[in-house]
Each structure stands twice: as C-alpha cells, then as structure tokens.
Amino acid sequence: MTGEDAAESLDALFAGLPEDGRRTLEQIGMGLPELRRMAAQDGGMVRVRGVLSEFTARQEARHPGDDEGPPERAAVRPWALLFAAAVVGVALTALGTLLIHETAVLVGVICGLGVLFTALRTRASRGGLALRWITVAAYAALVLTVSFNTQQWYLKVRGVEQTVTIAAPLHQWTHGTRETYCRVRLGDGSVHRVLDNREKCADRAGLDGTAVVDPAGHYRPFLGTRSDIGGRAGAFAALGAAAALILAPVAAVVLGRRRPRTGHPRAGLAGGTNA
Q1: Average pLDDT, consecutive stretches of 10 residues, N- to C-terminus, the chain (275 residues)
Q2: In terms of domains, do 135 and 11 share one?
Q3: What is the secondary structure of 56-122 as a DSSP string?
Q4: To the nearest 5 percent, what fractions of the chain are helix, strand and coil?
Q5: β-bridge pairing 208-213 and 191-193
Q6: I need a labelling partner for 21 at 20 to 30 A (CA). Which of 33, 41, 49, 152 fits?
Q7: What is the pTM of this model?
C-alpha cells in the first residue's frame, strides 16, 4: 500500500469512529496528525489499526428485557405505563372504600393483575429487574394500607364529633363464629354500624356517647373522639410505599437512558503508543 493510499485509508478509519472516540483520541494527543505520523513508519499502519480498534463502536449484546426502539423512548415508555397502571389501581382502590369499605382490597388485587402484566414488559437489564419488583411490592403495600386506613384518614381530617345513642348491637355469624358489631343512632334517627368495632357495646345500648361522623355519609361513624382514631402507622407505611412507587420507575428511567461508556483505551496500549 502506497503512502497516499495508507493516508486515505487512515482518514476513512478515523472518520468512521464514533464522535466521542475521535474526541478522546484528540484529547490524549492521538489525533489524526499523530496517527498519520505513526502510519508513515514501518509497520505503523498495524499499530494505528490497533489504536483505532479500541475506539470502534461495538454492537452490544442484548439482555432479556431490553426494549426496542430509540434508547430515550424505550427507557421511558414501559416505566411510565407501569407507574400509570399502579396509580390507577391505587386510586380505584381508594374510591372503592366509599362503597365496599375494607373489601376494596379486592379492587386493588384485580388492578394488580394489570400492574403485574405491565411490569413484565419493562426491561430487566441495568437494574430494571430489581426495580420492577420493588415497584410491584410498593403497589401491593400501598393497596393494603389504602384499603384498611382510608376511612380512618378521612374521618381524622373531615369527620365531625357529635353525640350519638348506642343502638342494639348486630349479631352475625362470620367464619363459623358469632360476632357482635356495635351500632349507633345518629341525630337524624339513622342507625349505622361503627368503624373498627372497637368497644364492647352490648351492655351500653340506649346510652349516649361520642362518635366521629362523616358529614357526607360515605364512611361509617367512629365510636369515640377524633383523637382516638388510629391510622398513623398506616400513614407512614403508605408514605414509604408511595415514595418507592415513584422513585423506582424514575431510577429505572435514569439508568436505562445512560449510554454505555466507549472509547477508553487499555492502559498498556496507551503507554505503548506514547513510547
């Protein structure tokens, strides 16, 4: 190969490098002029090809769960869908407590099937596998806490204390055992089963007491004062689960959009070319 052909071949090889690879070569003093000087020496073209091979883009092996399409879109879309599915499931569970109270957990379970299906479509590489199941676990924890604590949270914030009359309790058979459920009569004469059934009320029928009542009538009255209402531990659990539900997809998107680092020469080769 003549010197002119070698120069043209070198120019083509250098032009075919990724932009960050060319920039790195120039920063370490191995730009095109220096490469041409090396190529002009005996056996120099072989050395030049060895240097350039360290900066040539390689096709990365695919991993299970890798997404198709541009990295920016592929990294964001499945996690955005997973987050949206989880938020919808939690919201429907919270709304379900208006009608079926604690049984709304079944709504969360049904919606959880969609969350699980969406989670399986996220990428499994670059930490995605762990973040996928963290998101699913956060959803499950949030559904449980919302199902069993929404009524307490609502009454704690919006409930109104008023004097009620303890009515005759309701007796039902549940799972083979006879259960007693307390009831109260409100000022309008309506009788409601109380939330949490927290007191023995069979011997208090006809007596007056204090209850926290939902002004809108969606949730059961709570027999006691507002300060007696629990749900604080559930609130902390819900906040933690909500934080995980938000941060896990965000972390997955950030990791998924990071491009692999290329164009780093081996120390031995860099030292040899500078010699």
Answers
A1: 60 78 79 81 79 64 46 71 96 93 93 94 81 95 95 92 90 78 90 78 84 91 89 92 94 76 44 42
A2: no
A3: S--PPPP-TTPPPS-HHHHHHHHHHHHHHHHHHHHHHHHHHHHHHGGGGHHHHHHHHHHHHHHHTTS
A4: 60, 15, 30
A5: unpaired
A6: 41
A7: 0.65
Q: In what order do the strands lie in the sheet with 208-213?
A: 191-193, 177-185, 160-174, 208-213, 222-223
Which residue, chain included where needed, has tokens 């040539």? Answer: 56
Q: The domain spanning residue 208 has which CATH number?
A: 2.40.50
One-letter amino acid identity for 182? C
**Distance between CA 177 and CA 108 in Å, rounded?**
28
Question: Cα 27 to the chain's mean position, in Å?
Answer: 40
Tell me if 13 is assigned to some domain: yes
137, 245: one domain: yes
- What count of Cα atoms within 13 Å lies in the side-chain half-sphere of residue 147? 17
State in Å, rounded, how far the first CA of the chain is from the last one.
Answer: 25
Question: Are 80 and 195 found together in one domain?
Answer: no
Domain match, 136 and 199 both: no
Q: Residue 217, by phi and psi: left (phi above 0), alpha (psi -120 to 50) or beta?
A: left
Strands 208-213 and 160-174: antiparallel
Q: How far is CA 263 from the centre of its chain?
A: 33
Count of domains forming the chain: 3
Same domain, 97 and 142: yes
Q: Name the burial class of residue 136, with classes exposed (0-12), middle (13-18) and buried (19+) by CB atoms within 10 angstroms of its CB.
A: buried
